Amino acid sequence: MPSLKTQHQVHWLTGQLCEYDKETIYRSSITARVRFESCLSLSVAALIFGMFAISDYYILGFTWELYLLLTMRIMVVSLCLLLAFIIGRWGGYSRKLWLHALPLWILATGIILIVPLRPESLSTQVTAVVVATMAFYLLIPNLLTVVTFASLYLNIGFLVSAVLFAEISPMLTLRIALLLIMANVVGFCALLRLESLQRKQFALLHEERDQNHQLLKEIAHRKSLETQLRMVAELDALTGLNNRGHFMKLAKALLQRSRLEQVPFSVFMIDVDHFKSINDTWGHTHGDWVLTKIADVCAQALRPEDVIGRFGGEEFVVALPDTSPDDAQIVAERLKKKVAELPLKEEMSGLSLSVTIGIAVTYPAEDDLESLITRADQMLYTGKRNGRNRVVMCSKGMEEG
Ligand SMILES: Nc1nc2c(ncn2[C@@H]2O[C@H](COP(=O)(O)OP(=O)(O)OP(=O)(O)O)[C@@H](O)[C@H]2O)c(=O)[nH]1
């Protein structure tokens, strides 16, 4: 089993997985979370942005600047809420990246536009820009690349706007620039760490899941091999019946149970009559076919609790627990009849297929299996001697019938 040592390459600057396919899978896996969180945080950000209209009123009073600001805020809030709704319904990083970038750029534009309309409250606005920058990086879930560009746009735009409309001194410009750079560096590094950690964790989980999947496949493969091996060891390849060894094992267990339950136990030895001539006349393939058909008849005619085996060649053996001599006779006759009625291949129409069945019954089940089989075999050969196509019974204390 491979160990969990694969290094998951995360890009040092973007925090994204270097393998495109893995990055796509990662983005798809977080789609639902991204939709919900983006929708929520964008809505909150838009509403907070809108609420600053109150301070606009206190600073500007009913002036044309206030109306302009109100119009701008309403547009920004409406657009952001609309985009938050769209992202909540359909947004995901994997394909619609622009959809996630757009609200950040709209918010940034809104913040930049405040400077020319309220140049006297620049210090408050610097704080607002720093807070907005940190919110871009850390609160609104987005890709590092998307956030970085939106944040640079906000910061550079704000600085240029401050120089142009608030006419700040070079020294103040430098101080504000340094403050904004610091906010960006902190935000960028924090998000970079977060992004790469999340992806590494995801990649590890994914790898672990792959390995578990591989392990399950391996287990299933081994189980199927085991089943195949068991079948080879226990079943006859031609007929699918138990082979001799496995039959003996199962039949011994049945005999033991019959002994404990004090019920009769019967054994059939079944031999196909004149089977050699079937082989000689139609070939071994047809002979094999006949054997499989007889095996099917046995399987269908007997109870599920009876154990059937191929004893060798054209000879079958059946163990029937809780079966009295009378019942055994009836079952064997029925079996013989079903074999005789077997529909044969067209070219074998001249064949009258039959079996001879020797039965041995023990009650109480005091004999061992080997001696029961020997007695059934003796009955079988009695049947063969007496003309075949018959059932011959011998039970303990009984003469052959
Ligand atoms: N097609 C085929 N023939 C088999 C198989 N195993 C044994 N035989 C053949 O079965 C034949 C058994 O012949 P015999 O033992 O003379 O028995 P029989 O011809 O059925 O005669 P009776 O049992 O006395 O009625 C032999 O020719 C074997 O080669 C098998 O798996 N497939």
UniProtKB/TrEMBL annotation:
<dbReference type="InterPro" id="IPR029787">
    <property type="entry name" value="Nucleotide_cyclase"/>
</dbReference>
<protein>
    <recommendedName>
        <fullName>diguanylate cyclase</fullName>
        <ecNumber>2.7.7.65</ecNumber>
    </recommendedName>
</protein>
<keyword id="KW-0472">Membrane</keyword>
<dbReference type="Pfam" id="PF00990">
    <property type="entry name" value="GGDEF"/>
</dbReference>
<dbReference type="InterPro" id="IPR043128">
    <property type="entry name" value="Rev_trsase/Diguanyl_cyclase"/>
</dbReference>
<keyword id="KW-1133">Transmembrane helix</keyword>
<feature type="transmembrane region" description="Helical">
    <location>
        <begin position="172"/>
        <end position="192"/>
    </location>
</feature>
<dbReference type="InterPro" id="IPR000160">
    <property type="entry name" value="GGDEF_dom"/>
</dbReference>
<feature type="transmembrane region" description="Helical">
    <location>
        <begin position="66"/>
        <end position="85"/>
    </location>
</feature>
<dbReference type="InterPro" id="IPR050469">
    <property type="entry name" value="Diguanylate_Cyclase"/>
</dbReference>
<feature type="transmembrane region" description="Helical">
    <location>
        <begin position="97"/>
        <end position="116"/>
    </location>
</feature>
<feature type="transmembrane region" description="Helical">
    <location>
        <begin position="147"/>
        <end position="166"/>
    </location>
</feature>
<dbReference type="GO" id="GO:0052621">
    <property type="term" value="F:diguanylate cyclase activity"/>
</dbReference>
<feature type="domain" description="GGDEF">
    <location>
        <begin position="263"/>
        <end position="396"/>
    </location>
</feature>
<feature type="transmembrane region" description="Helical">
    <location>
        <begin position="39"/>
        <end position="60"/>
    </location>
</feature>
<keyword id="KW-0812">Transmembrane</keyword>
